[in-house]
């Protein structure tokens, strides 16, 4: 059995542990539409190929889950958008998705992570247990986990901005991620900003927002 070490880029320093390893020879049914093909990029990350459009996603294993190392960029007409309607922003930061399609946007073999999966990710990059349940748009959690998810962990969070109505805001300043978890009619999400090292956790109605989707392997 051959194993490929997922790149850590300083994660051992951030959370005091060694990088996680995953197998590249796990069997996947041929008719699922989406398969990890066993290939790897220059850093050694195992790729996940979305057979709907043949896009390739490097992965990183954190908190016991294998995450895509960039935002989803699968086009769903009328419900996914390039920031500023500029395809170059999709190529860099992935697409922005409305809540109506976020739960089903990830390819077969992956899914939109829930609030608990995000907390496991945050724990893996060093967030203390007593910080995980904190909530609020401006309530800081942890120490520098947001900065770690931007750079050192291999997660690769970029400041993708968001769309509301037909207006785009916050490119290169902050980014938002849907989760699959709701509280009443509100949806849990995450916010990471360029000017702060925290990871913010809060709920809001989905309204007309379109924000990023980060998929995690099933």
Keywords:
globular; 218 residues; disordered N terminus; 16 strands; four-stranded antiparallel β-sheet; alpha+beta
What class would the helix/strand composition place it in? Answer: alpha+beta
Radius of gyration: 16 Å
The low-confidence runs, each spanning 5 or more residues with pLDDT under 50, are 1-36, 38-45
- The portion of residues forming beta strands comes to 25-35%
In short:
The protein has 218 residues and is an alpha+beta fold.
Q: What does it look like?
A:
The protein is globular. It has five helices and 16 strands. The chain is an alpha+beta fold.
Please outline the helices and strands.
Layout lengths: L2 E3 L5 H5 L5 E3 L10 E2 L11 E4 L4 E8 L2 E4 L11 E2 L5 H7 L2 E3 H4 L7 E2 L3 H10 L20 H6 L11 E3 L2 E3 L4 E10 L2 E8 L6 E5 L4 E4 L3 E2 L1
Antiparallel strand pairs: 1-2, 3-4, 4-5, 5-6, 7-8, 8-15, 9-16, 10-11, 10-15, 12-13, 13-14
């Amino acid at each position: 059995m051959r194993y490929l070490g997922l790149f850590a880029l300083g994660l051992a320093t951030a959370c005091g542990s060694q990088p996680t390893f995953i197998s590249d020879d796990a069997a996947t049914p041929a008719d699922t539409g989406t398969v990890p093909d066993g290939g790897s990029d220059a850093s050694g990350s195992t790729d996940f190929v979305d057979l709907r459009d043949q896009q390739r996603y490097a992965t990183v294993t954190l908190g016991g889950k294998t995450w895509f190392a960039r935002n989803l960029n699968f086009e769903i007409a009328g419900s996914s958008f390039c920031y500023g309607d500029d395809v170059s922003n999709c190529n860099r930061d992935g697409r922005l998705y409305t809540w109506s399609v976020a739960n089903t946007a990830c390819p077969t073999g992956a899914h939109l992570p829930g609030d608990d999966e995000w907390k496991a990710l945050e724990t893996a990059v060093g967030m203390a247990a007593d910080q995980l349940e904190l909530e609020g748009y401006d309530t800081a959690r942890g120490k520098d986990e947001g900065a770690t998810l931007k750079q050192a962990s291999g997660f690769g969070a970029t400041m993708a901005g968001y769309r509301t109505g037909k207006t785009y805001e916050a490119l290169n300043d902050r980014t938002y991620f849907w989760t699959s978890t709701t509280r009443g009619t509100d949806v849990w999400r995450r916010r990471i900003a360029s000017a702060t090292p925290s990871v913010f956790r809060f709920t809001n109605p989905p309204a007309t927002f379109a924000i990023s989707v980060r998929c995690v392997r099933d």
